[in-house]
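Follow-up to my earlier ticket, as requested here are the two runs.
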Amino acid sequence: GVKEKEQRGVKRPIAPPTIPEPLQEQIQSNFIVVIHPGSRTLRIGRATDTLPVTVPHVIARRHTQSGQARHEDAWLLREGLNKAESNEQRQNGLKMVDQAIWSKKMSNGMRRTPVSAEQARAYNCQIRPAVLDTSSRVKWTNTIHQPPFLVGEEALYVNPSDCYNIHWPIVRGQLNLHTGPGGSLTAVLADLETIWGHIIQKQLDIPLKDLKYYRCILLVPDIYNRQHIKEVVNMLLLNMGFSAIIVHQESVCATFGSGLSSACVVDVGDQKTSLCCVEDGVSHRNSRVCLAYGGSDVTRTFFWLLQRAGFPYRECQLANRLDCQLLQHLKETLCHLEQDISGLQDHEFQTRFPEAPALLYQVRLGDEKLQAPMGLFYPTTFGIVGQKMTFLQYRSQGDPEDPYDEHFLLATQSKQDQSSKSAAERKAVSRAGGGVGDLSGGSAAPGGMKSGEMEVGPAQGEGLMGAAGEGEELSSAHLSRKSAIMNQFESKALGLDKAILHSIDCCVSDETKRKMYSSILVVGGGLMFQGAQEFLLHRIINKMPPSFRRLMDNVEIITRPKDMDPRLISWKGGAVLACLDTTQEMWIHQREWQRFGVRMLRERAAFVW
């Protein structure tokens, strides 16, 4: 029966057997908590729940001293928007967007007639709101009892004049470390622990003292910071007290959640977009790309376009979190990628803020609704200057606890003799077909790029981190060339369509590439626009390498597998993972972690740690 089935995939731990192994009990899925922490949203629930609890991933912390300066982490604002060239970049991006809109015909064969912002502006500038109700019936969070912290929705509605700091512990998929208040690693980890613990107690009804009976599945980005993941696992096992954990990649979980065995996963989040090709539960290392933009950049661009069109809610500000929420809502309800919707249209929206009347606004809009989401394909439109926008596979900082980290592997490798080295180099160059392709896969030696920079390349194989000891030692000339190509590549923001083509192109065989073209899976909440599927298909087919053009009838973009909400698919996949036979050998138990630490991740993780 089920019991034997669960037993089958059990592999004894490789760790020395000094700790008696627990009897392989039948693990019950209702005692497994799946955590998918996003930059904007936390999704968390039991593996048996149909839907996770979804909350804003934010915390308000009460000031400890009176007269303390207030700090609030930004949401729609980010570094690089106020540079001298920002506005010029925005305008240039918009020109490219308009050109693209004009060049693609509507389904009736006609070209769209562009609508200028001026046409809407004259109308919008004379709009005054109508009062729907003298009270908005929305209140600030009640802090009369001075709670030390508030989480989620309650944190969003803390009065800005109240003595609380607002922290979003994750930004663009990474821990939100900064030099301001609450920006240290310790503080950010404490925020995660407090938010997760609060939701587990209040919404999942699990007392924290009972977590010793529970296990946890943690979803992480494909390009991750090892040090950060190690600290979060530490927090979950040792501070919160879960009995065991599995760490798995969002992309692989997305394929589990949608029931696909292989896919090019395109995860468009609020602040980052990550892509990678997944084949039978394995994420291909070289195909991983992370773009430092997402839904919130579309929202901010939409606001800029609304202002050009004379947006009638004139007090709206990007620094105000309730205005940000309204703008996100307007983007989600008004924006689209439908070529056929054109001309000027009238819309209405309401504002309901605490201590203010409920107001109804009219607004007339034209192309703004299409231009904003197209920023994902022409990211210069976002106006972000001087920031690294494209990340490729991470190389880790050395970790003293992990004797097999890459610096150690490099040191042992340099002892290999020269002849095998030159043979390997020749092989790598011929395999990759020269050009950018002669960058060897996995890792580069210290001294090439700063530790923690990323990897580029349609490079074949896993390089150093793949088959142990097979990698090539790289000459310093090769490294500086590689470094130059990397930097050139990463300082530019790749449009979403180009990033997809890049990711698929990094797969080793043509057969895998074909598989990926026929299964491009879009998840996350950042591309949920009407018309997105057809629009993306059109862009991919037009930009595919000529050698694959004959396959274009097989290109498929999947935006709602099994009619599921794309925002929940990765979480769902984590819940599916909890029930798979093969999962049994991936659990890392609290005692093992206490004893062996991060080495357990190298041993048990389902991906190359």
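Run two:
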Amino acid sequence: MCLVLMARLLLCSILLLERNYVIGTEYRGKSLGTLNSYHHQVGGEVYAVNEYTLLISDFTFDGSANDAFFWAGASSRPGPQGFILANEYGRTDVLKRYLGKELKLTLPDNKKLTEINWLAIYDLSKNIAFGDVYVPEDFEPPIKQVIGDLTTKSHGVSSGPIEILDSKTIKIPMFSYNGAGKDTYFVVGNGPQPSAKGKKIPDESGYLDNLRTYLNETIILELVGDTTVFDIDWLSVYDLQTKDNFGWVLIPDEPNVPPSLQKVADKIENIMHCVQLHKKLQLSWQVFGPQITIRLAGQIDEDNYMAFGFSGSEEAPQMLGADIAITYIDGFRGQAMDYNITDKSPCVKVLGQYKGVCRDTLVGGLDDNQVHTATRENGINVITYRRNLQSYDVGDKEFKTNTLNSMIWAIGRMNHQKEPSVHDFFPRSVLKLDLDPKPPIDTCYSFTVNTETVKKDVWEQPKIIDSSLRMMTATLGPSGGKKGFQGLTGLPSPGLAWFINGYLIPEIWLKRGITYVIHIYGGNNPHSSQYYHPFVITDEPNGGYDGMTDVAQKQTRILAGVQYTLRRQARPTSAGPLCLRERKGFDRRLDDNFISFKEFNKSLDMRCEPGDPAVLEFKPNSSWPDIVYYHSFVQSNMGWKLHIVDKFSTGRNSAAQVQFNWLLGILLYLIFTQM
């Protein structure tokens, strides 16, 4: 009897191990089988990734053959009739030694897997196959699968035919939702229909906030952690508070789709509690005695920061009045700097006082965050720091364990002065955080890493190359997200940028010896840290001369826009009333949804204060470098390049374009002078 029980237990254990093995196995595509090995220790498993691509895992070849290649063909067996496949580097070199390597091979000339019968490791000089695998006659390679529209229930939810692009990616075309749900998310799960037992997944921008309004938008969703389409039965637009399903679609069993380009990273260890704030950011914490230990983990670029702290409002995510920590890695050293926010701008000195996003130490406070550990691996920053629940700094807010805390977070880029620029990711709603939940909370999951380089999409760089240009108009407007200023310059942005003759930071060609005039509407209220931007031209690319160190100021040459006092201190001369382009009520996180600057510009309204513009007149001469920069005197990274030339090349601009630029400058001047 005991032996029978032991046998049954052993069988159950084996089945459980097998089940776990299947679940834990990474999906690489549709299997073609194991390479048949004939010579030179060839081995490996071959998969079809899609119609055009093969993947060989654990590939082995001793590399001792003199004329061996990856070789494919349509004949009944490997032979001289075939073609070479480029190796994993895209080259058709003679194969070298491989030992347990994973590599992708793409068929040349848009050939499809259905057009070949075999893949071989083949010696062309000896006409010998060292190893091969065959493609079955009725083989169907993985392709995207169309599974039908969302079934509409309520709240205006609708879509076009949904596509499963790969094992972790779902495309929803023409998606609409009226945004009226109370606690609504994209939710996936198991079972015959949607339920509150499902799991939230990030929206198309990685947010885990209550869904916004959509109107016929095409969005792409990615499943999180190690979840794939093989693990779920449905996708729903679901309100977790009311437990209402607004619209849903069934996921077919075992869809024949390509593997995801995302690789699952190891899960970051929690301190005690963990909350996934965004697809790219996790918060973990533990309260012990009078102190709180906080760990931020973010899938961010090297020059990025992670911010976390108290909102300036109990009910909304508000920057003004916020008390936050800015964490980043400077070389090999982690930082968790205490910041106080008094205005929506990087920190600047306004009439002798610091305003904006400023370090506590600059505004009379204390920096009482203590960094414990900081690491960066596989593009993930993990920074752990500690602070007293009740800080010694009277300007800091208290972490309360007996009530909910209203918190905010952000991800952005540090500028060249190691100060935070405008954040790229931030919440739509305030985070109500219980510091001592029971039982411990953990909504975090493993980050996923893209295995292939993603091409960054940016708007076309505007250029003004006009030999007849004499007058320009400079106004302010939003910098346009990662497709705008950041994408065009590669620099972080404070959120505002110069618009010259209606274009966002155009590169402008000017000729030495010609006098130019710029009418400037940069704001002339020196009490404002956000909207006071005198226009200057310098020989360095960042700007913000007023906030530079003494050493940096001495190394910077200001070519136009200032006067010097008797003590050789620069004083700006060209500010003018404020003319500002503003978004028509839409969320700036959607800036990157615009396919072009033209479309983005159409979405903006112009607001101008009364008054005449400041007039800056200058004449480039032989002492000017070939490339100089227009900037704000007080804020860095708001302008871009001026190309200074001795003569204009012929044929670069048509007569019509020259006349258009000239008329545009006159028209903008007339419009602004009438406001």
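The only thing I checked on run two: DSSP finds five helices and 49 strands in the chain. Let me know what else you need.
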